[in-house]
Amino acid sequence: ANALFSSLGTTIFTVMSRLAQEHGAINLGQGFPEGLEPPDVIEAARAALTAGPHQYPPMMGEPVLRQAVAAHEARFYGLDIDWEREVLVTSGATEALADALFGLIEPGDEVVLLEPLYDSYLPIVRRAGGIPRLVRLEPPHWDLPREALARAFGPRTKLMILNSPMNPCGKVFSPEELVFLADLLERHDAYALCDEVYEHLVFDGRPHVPLMTVPGMRERCVRIGSAGKTFSLTNWKVGLIVAAPALLEPIAKAHQYLTFTTPIPLQRAVAYGLGKDDAYFDGLKADMQARRDRLARGLEALGVGVLACAGTYFLSADFRPLGVDRPDAELCRWLTTEAKVTLVPVSAFYAQDTSDSPPPAHLVRFCFAKRDADLDEALARLGRFF
Ligand code: PMP
Ligand code: GLN
């Protein structure tokens, strides 16, 4: 398939947010939270901006943030991380993903990817010269298809990308699934790029389990986090990478030529934020879970089919029980222009140009990380429409 960026379309998030604005629709499409921004973290950035300095920070990131990341890894996951050699600060998880893919993939390497997938993975894998091996998870349960996955691994597999909790379907991989993956990675001497940007958004009392904590995986995993998600500040674009030195070194080489650094005030404020007490992290989870439940209950009351969501700030829904049988992309346009509610089609999270069977076209993604009033108004608009 085509690796040229010139052949790519505009990301679905931009397309749908633009359309929402044009039509005065409530935007439950693009994933960004509203009403959860922690004022003290913002204040820490303000103070750091005033204090300066205003010139380049160290290429690997501010020491105070790298130390805070190491402390976070120990506190939440029991991981012993060397902040000087095993932590890299990037401008968002988006850059972290690109750094890792450009740093680790050599042309011809195979990369195992699970569909549905976040939209930045495939273009970068291909541009780095990687050969994607796509494996599909099937709704409504999105269980790991173990046989298909085992078949996707081979002698040329360099790495797999694992997004848990998983956008867009809200799946959290079970400990058993992680052990199965660890076994495959070990047998094929492959790495895992673990996109864990929603690590603090796992619900119903379950813990987040990084693949990196599974026995044998400490040296094979690149763990990616995002301050945008952890502090509901997606504008900030502070990404975090934790990996063993042998993996982090080539990744840092990519980073030095992609962005080199990230603004100091934001790094220092995120360092402060990572040290916040358990009440903050528990509160974020509880608050987001309440929003999930508010939206899910409202949709169910309308007769919409709601799929389970164990993490992230997204849930998928099926409008067929209402007698609506339009393909998801068309449904999302129609709901934006007519009902004034914007969602994102789940089919956008599949490779668009393979000869595989077409992706499911009956699911739409709701972002529930919004103010109660907006969730309620969106439900009211849908209620009037159907
Ligand atoms: N990975 C996933 C799965 C995401 O949903 C997002 C959200 N935007 C990102 C990466 C990118 O994160 P960031 O905004 O920190 O670049
Ligand atoms: N990750 C967010 C989502 O899934 C949006 C990121 C973006 O707009 N690029 O909606």
TrEMBL record:
It is an enzyme of class 2 (transferase). GO terms for cellular component: cytoplasm. Its EC number is 2.6.1.-. It holds the Pfam family Aminotran_1_2. InterPro entries: Aminotransferase_I/II_large, Kynurenine-oxoglutarate_AT, PyrdxlP-dep_Trfase, PyrdxlP-dep_Trfase_major, PyrdxlP-dep_Trfase_small. Residues 26-382 form the Aminotransferase class I/classII large domain. It comes from the Bacteria. GO terms for molecular function: kynurenine-oxoglutarate transaminase activity; pyridoxal phosphate binding. Its cofactor is pyridoxal 5'-phosphate. Keywords: Aminotransferase, Pyridoxal phosphate, Transferase. NCBIfam families: PRK08912.1. This is Aminotransferase. It comes from Pararhodospirillum photometricum DSM 122. The lineage of its organism: Bacteria, Pseudomonadati, Pseudomonadota, Alphaproteobacteria, Rhodospirillales.
